[in-house]
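Q: How do we represent a protein-ligand complex in a form that can be generated token by token?
A: Start from the inputs.
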Amino acid sequence: MKKALLIVNPKAGKSKARTWLYQWIETLGRADYAVNVIMTQKPGHATDAVYKYGKEHDLVVCAGGDGTLNEAITGLLRSGAEVPVGYIPTGSTNDFASTLCLSKDPRKAVRDVVKGVKKGIDVGAFNDRYFTYVASFGIFTKASYSTPQESKNVLGHLAYILEGIKDLPTTRAEHVRIVTPEKTFEDDYIFGAIANSTSLGGVMKLDDKVVMMNDGKFELLLVKKPGNMGDLSLSINAILSQNYDTDMIEFLPIESAEIESENPLVWSIDGERADTDGHVNVKNLHCAISMMLPTAAADSSIL
Ligand SMILES: [Mg+2]
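Then emit the structure tokens for the protein with magnesium ion bound:
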């Protein structure tokens, strides 16, 4: 028999695992996998478990939100093991899952894992950490990691949006210098993101004709500090409408970036808080992991 390591975050999205765990094990068993289950008990647990045990398995399946998946992939990359990853999205936001067209039905998601197509996916190195879909700073960023889990579960996407709007009157800009192989940017920005995703925090959408998950590139998006409230509205509207044809916004595909800020900058990496000393190195690790994806995703324009 093949061996699968099933990492479950029991607290993700209204504790869905309580309902579905048996089904997941049964479906994996039918596909000839002997299943080892680890229920995560604290932050970092999924990283440690996959780092230690991932290499002894033929498949790592992660059931949880984007944060749990980030942890599992981090463990796998640190261990150097080349084991394919399946993702059963049970979190409240699941941006990464939306981008990859993964089913939100936990039964179908696990079937897609066992019947899926193995595809290489780019991963971002962010100093000594990793991200699967976004590293960001500024407005909307605080909301992604400061919304309590309970609130995320109850309000879902709405929580992110409301928290973001509440932040606006007190939003401060960061003076940031971003050096990329193509171009250098330096200005006061209220938002910056380096993303490999068509969806950010349920707030922003990036065009799926532009975004590819395995093209060796991320999309850099920078929003300049507006001169007045009218400019602010224009920027927000541009973000929400995905029309970046304004001087207030920079948009560029990049392979890597060095980011320096005058002040220590708080980032969000896949929705988790990341404090930095003001120096950040981001690099696209091309096809660093393999994921088991539904054929619909494998055939889509993002792969
Ligand atoms: Mg890409």
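Residues 150-162 have pLDDT under 50 and may be disordered. The pocket of magnesium ion is lined by residues 122, 196, 211-213, 215, 217-218 (CB under 6 Å).
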